[in-house]
UniProtKB/TrEMBL annotation, chain A:
<keyword id="KW-0539">Nucleus</keyword>
<dbReference type="GO" id="GO:0055029">
    <property type="term" value="C:nuclear DNA-directed RNA polymerase complex"/>
</dbReference>
<dbReference type="InterPro" id="IPR009025">
    <property type="entry name" value="RBP11-like_dimer"/>
</dbReference>
<dbReference type="GO" id="GO:0006362">
    <property type="term" value="P:transcription elongation by RNA polymerase I"/>
</dbReference>
<feature type="domain" description="DNA-directed RNA polymerase RBP11-like dimerisation">
    <location>
        <begin position="36"/>
        <end position="109"/>
    </location>
</feature>
<dbReference type="GO" id="GO:0046983">
    <property type="term" value="F:protein dimerization activity"/>
</dbReference>
<dbReference type="InterPro" id="IPR022905">
    <property type="entry name" value="Rpo11-like"/>
</dbReference>
<dbReference type="Pfam" id="PF13656">
    <property type="entry name" value="RNA_pol_L_2"/>
</dbReference>
<dbReference type="InterPro" id="IPR008193">
    <property type="entry name" value="RNA_pol_Rpb11_13-16kDa_CS"/>
</dbReference>
From TrEMBL, chain B:
<dbReference type="Pfam" id="PF01000">
    <property type="entry name" value="RNA_pol_A_bac"/>
</dbReference>
<dbReference type="GO" id="GO:0005666">
    <property type="term" value="C:RNA polymerase III complex"/>
</dbReference>
<dbReference type="InterPro" id="IPR022842">
    <property type="entry name" value="RNAP_Rpo3/Rpb3/RPAC1"/>
</dbReference>
<dbReference type="GO" id="GO:0003899">
    <property type="term" value="F:DNA-directed RNA polymerase activity"/>
</dbReference>
<dbReference type="InterPro" id="IPR011263">
    <property type="entry name" value="DNA-dir_RNA_pol_RpoA/D/Rpb3"/>
</dbReference>
<dbReference type="GO" id="GO:0046983">
    <property type="term" value="F:protein dimerization activity"/>
</dbReference>
<dbReference type="GO" id="GO:0055029">
    <property type="term" value="C:nuclear DNA-directed RNA polymerase complex"/>
</dbReference>
<keyword id="KW-0804">Transcription</keyword>
<dbReference type="GO" id="GO:0006351">
    <property type="term" value="P:DNA-templated transcription"/>
</dbReference>
Length: 127, 356
């Protein structure tokens, strides 16, 4: 007899795959000109939520930005953005995403550059 | 570090019973007349990344000049979203050991494998197993009496053949193009000495296993790190000279190597590179004679990372992998946001096509 202990695909990853098929970002509620809006991002957590919030708050045209994880059983985050001068919060979101990407690139380049310089202490760890 | 004065805005105060100035305030509009908006050039100028120590299993590096949200994102991704390969499906053919099937299957799953995850693809829930997304392993161990056991021995290793199922008994069966792809480094457990079950004569364990690619947020066995953590650089400022007769007592309030005492003058100072060794135990603040002569703090944007790899990744590869995952996530969200913008402008301009 062959027993299959198949513990593949926990409920959490099934939920994430179901939501991935749907939209990644949903506009929950907004003013008609999108100057104030709440976006629901699927399959993301504090990792993206907090860093995106920080980058949006670095934008002087952003009046308010905050994020929340509404419930631990749902793998989503809500990001609230309110803009000055009736500007589009969606444009601010897209700018923040590109800026965050450039930030990541900069950190990676600096790390690889320093690693290549070979100026660290090397040691042997026994196991 | 201690020689040049630090911008006091960068410091998180550590006092006897409280911490102060915890949150970052470098946002536009917080300080009147100052520009704190995002500026890539300024960020590049202020950013410093320094690898401090590297071994075959762990790495220590500093990231200076980023916000906690960024440092925390890298840490979280290293733990939960950098993929690795682990045994996921276990098929039992025979198990007469005292360890029940489901417990043994779980133990197989936790064994770290030496497979480079970049050589494999992720398998979705409906995808069939292929040579690109699944590795097949086998365990077939039978315990027997050792006919040549020395008389009067009580050591199971002498009395029996195969008294233990070890991680080294997990053998890989190549399929398709795998023999070629994994020619340099045959898939196997990273540690050959993990005891998975104990056997006695007549007991047998025979399993087939499928290993797949996965991430730590699905199951902790997929996490590539044993620890991935950061702390903030301690900053100690001596505000009043320490009386020479108390110098040694003062030094003992800190971790070894943090406080220097000049052998000639008995003058007390903070070691140039010693502050990072401190635990910020606050012991010094318990002594009334020192409480007014020292200020303890941590630097808010100075992150000391410590990462231990427990996977096929070399420790120095973990941060670049985490950044790669982060950038992939950002690209997916950006694409969705741009699609949303496309949709909303179409609605605004009334060019949505409908049947006339």
């Amino acid at each position: 007899m062959v027993l299959d202990f198949n513990n593949t695909w926990s409920l959490r990853s099934l939920v994430s795959i179901m939501t991935e098929a749907a939209e990644k970002i949903k506009l929950l509620r907004s003013s008609p000109d999108l100057s104030a809006a709440t976006y629901q991002i699927h399959d993301e957590s504090h990792t993206i939520g907090n860093s995106l919030r920080w980058m949006l708050m670095k934008n002087p045209k952003v009046e308010f930005c905050g994020y929340s994880v509404p419930h631990p059983s749902e793998n989503v985050i809500n990001v609230r953005i309110q803009m000055y001068d009736n500007l589009s919060s969606l444009d601010a979101l897209i700018t923040a995403l590109s800026d965050l990407d450039k930030l990541c690139e900069t950190v990676e380049d600096a790390y690889i550059k320093d690693l290549r310089e070979n100026k660290y202490e090397k040691w042997e760890e026994k196991r | 570090m201690s020689s040049q004065p630090l911008d006091p805005r960068r410091l998180v105060g550590v006092h006897a019973e409280r911490v102060t100035d915890v949150s970052s305030r470098d946002f536009p509009g917080h300080y009147p007349g100052e520009d704190h908006s995002w500026n890539l050039q300024r960020f590049k100028k202020n950013l410093k990344v320094k690898v401090q120590r590297l071994s075959n299993y762990s790495i220590e590096f500093d990231i200076i000049g980023v916000d906690a949200s960024i440092a925390n994102a890298f840490r979280r991704i290293m733990i939960a979203e950098v993929p690795t390969i682990c045994i996921e499906n276990v098929f039992a053919f025979n198990n007469t050991s005292v360890v029940v099937d489901e417990v043994l299957a779980h133990r197989f799953g936790l064994v770290p494998l030496n497979v480079d995850p970049s050589l494999m693809e992720m398998r979705g829930p409906d995808d069939p197993p292929t040579d690109r997304n699944t590795l097949v392993f086998e365990v077939d161990v039978t315990c027997q009496r050792n006919p040549k056991a020395p008389k009067g021995s009580t050591d199971p290793n002498e009395l029996y053949i195969n008294p233990e199922v070890l991680s080294s008994d997990i053998t890989w069966s190549p399929a398709g193009e795998q023999a070629e792809v994994f020619a340099d480094n045959a898939p196997a457990p990273t540690n050959p000495n993990i005891v998975l079950a104990k056997l006695r004569p007549g007991q047998e364990v025979h399993y087939q296993m499928h290993a797949v690619k996965g991430v730590g947020k699905d199951h902790a066995k997929f996490s590539p790190v044993a620890t991935a953590s950061y702390r903030l650089l301690p900053y100690i400022k001596i505000t009043k000279p320490i009386p020479t007769h108390l110098a040694e007592k003062f030094q003992k309030c800190f971790s070894p190597g943090v406080i220097k005492i000049n052998p000639q003058t008995q003058e007390v100072s903070v070691d140039e590179n010693g502050a990072r060794k401190d635990t910020v135990s606050r012991e010094v603040l318990r002594h009334p004679e020192f409480a007014d002569s020292v200020e303890l703090s941590r630097v808010r944007d100075y992150f000391l990372f410590n990462v231990e790899s427990e996977s096929a990744y070399r420790p120095e590869r973990l941060l670049p992998e985490a950044i790669k995952v982060m950038r992939e996530k950002l690209a997916i969200i950006k694409q969705a946001a741009e699609a949303l913008r496309e949709k909303s402008t179409l609605v605004d301009n009334d060019v949505v096509m409908t049947d006339v």
